[in-house]
Amino acid sequence: MNALTVNKLDTKALVDYLASHEKKSLLRFLTCGSVDDGKSTLIGRLLYDTKLIFEDQLAGIERDSKKFGTVGEDIDLALLVDGLQAEREQGITIDVAYRFFTTDKRKFIVADTPGHEQYTRNMATGASNSDLAVILIDARKGILTQTRRHSFIVSLLGIKHVVLAVNKIDLVGYDQAVFDQIAADYKAFSAGFGFETLQAIPVSARYGDNVLEPSESMPWYDGPTLVEHLETVDIDSDLENRPFRLPVQWVNRPNLNFRGFSGTIASGTVRPGDAIVVARTGKASKIARVVTMPGQGGDGDLAYGRAGQAVTVTLEDEIDISRGDVIVPAAARPEVSDQFQAHLIWMNEEPLLPGRPYILKLGAKTVSATVTAIKHKIDVNTFNELAAKALPLNEVAVVDIMTQEPVAFDAYSDDHAMGSFIVIDRVSNLTLGAGMIDRGLRRATNVHWQALDVSKASRAGIKHQKPAVLWFTGLSGAGKSTIANLVEKRLLSMNHHTYLLDGDNVRHGLNKDLGFSAEDRVENIRRVAEVSRLMVDAGLVTLVSFISPFRAERQLARDLVAPGEFIEIHVATPLEVAEARDVKGLYKKARAGELKNFTGIDSPYEAPDNAELVLDTTRFSSEELAGQIVAYMAEKGYLSFGPDYEI
Fold first, then answer.
1. Could you read off the pLDDT of 100-133 as tens digits, one per residue?
2. What CATH topology corresponds to 239-329?
3. DSSP character for 102?
4. Does domain 15-232 have CATH number 3.40.50.300?
5. DSSP 390
6. How far apart are CA 502 and CA 511, in angstroms?
7. 548 has catalytic annotation
8. Does residue 405 contact residue 396 with C-beta atoms inside 8 Å?
9. Per CATH, the architecture of 456-635 is what?
10. For the whole prediction, is pTM greater than 0.85?
11. Which of 155, 262, 545, 548 is labelled catalytic?
């Protein structure tokens, strides 16, 4: 047999091998549970027993086991998954590790997720793309708080298939009574989670009992091994039977002769000739073509597209569609609303505060949003509903959310892709939380914008000024109110129309019901920002003197008015200078513990990053600084507009 024949045989074998894998179904699952329940060891055992470890990997694990291992002279299979140095040194999982393995019947992608409470956010990430969850329990410890938390999140994220792997059964002498009790306890507390399948299996990940082969040490167990169950569990999705949803990720315009809308079909199927609408606008058309790129993994024009497939569709009519829009059937539309109720998992150490502005990303759509109310948070031990004003790290709550503009969505229980979202920090761009929409809130369908004949431009024109918000921010005692008062006096002497909103004065009326907790401070600024917006609409120069310690709330105030109408003025007095002044004796009380949540002492102040004006009160007097502000306004054209002024 010559080399050419051998190469042809090798190529054929490779093609046949790849073809056999293409026909196998894929199961995505995660392992979760409490710390040190053996999640990484179990995945390592799966990789080892299914012969998916290369010789050099095995040699490396044998070497690392001597340095980092926790199982004596044996190979520590957990090190196959725990790749981070910190994980190996501590013997825990921190990040989500994804591994692939295959058997004769099915392909698998498994996510090894952390057990520590502080990494619950990582666990939720792994669960978001999984069809099944393997929840491990240490046979010696039974059900723990983190077991309950992970099980609840698994249920919340819509995973319907669960394997309860009672691990380390060898350390309790393969005792059937221990296994039966844990299985009974788990089934009792998870009864309301709606799992379609729940298979309890006693295993020893270290020795491989009931992982790939039945255990000789447990003749009393006659159920499937873990791999047998993973190979046979029916997770076929009904996504193709649901209404068609295509979130548009990209407007595809390679040349003047082609305009299509690209994205991954979230659910349903689509064919040329189907009647569709754009969910947001209701604009209607019909599908002209369903296209994939030929020669690059695609087939050109398709007879139809199905759920999970990345396609480009073209329409028979020219209608306005942009990234974030959703193309849907005319007869089966999603909800479109700017208010909805959702379950929210908070993933940041800074707590969620109602009223604080965030960015919400739902599919390809990104909008500003606020949590208007925390209806209740959920105790993961008892699943009781608890009152809450804030949502700390790793907590789950039912919340009401309002977006800056209407978005299209389905309930998460009906369509995961159309009902899931993430919450993003406006400043750092960090992901703060993950949510699942329960339902839309139709509270104000009878409230609409009323058209008014007198505009902001006409109100400002007769005052010969451009309306603006002068937002003074700084520490208590920085001199904000003093400088703002001087600026207003100067503007008034120049016949300009102003109003000053002072932090102390507002708390005697509009905000007298608010305290000084972080939650109340957010609401304090939100209300003042809304009032200042109304005053700008009235054509006034509005001076706002508030500590306003958080950048997010100052950004909210900026976003409420038009570009150029918000002037942030940082009265940049150092803490030691402000405290030395202590005009009201507040710093002394705060230092003595008599005033809680006092900015600069036991509550943070976030200085502006890009304020229009920064005032140095250590070099200039209040009168000089007021003059700087008036000069800035004159230079920028705020004080010289006549009746023909246009915004």
1. 778 888 888 887 776 445 545 566 766 777 889 9
2. Elongation Factor Tu (Ef-tu); domain 3 (2.40.30)
3. E
4. yes
5. S
6. 11
7. yes
8. no
9. 3-Layer(aba) Sandwich (3.40)
10. no
11. 548
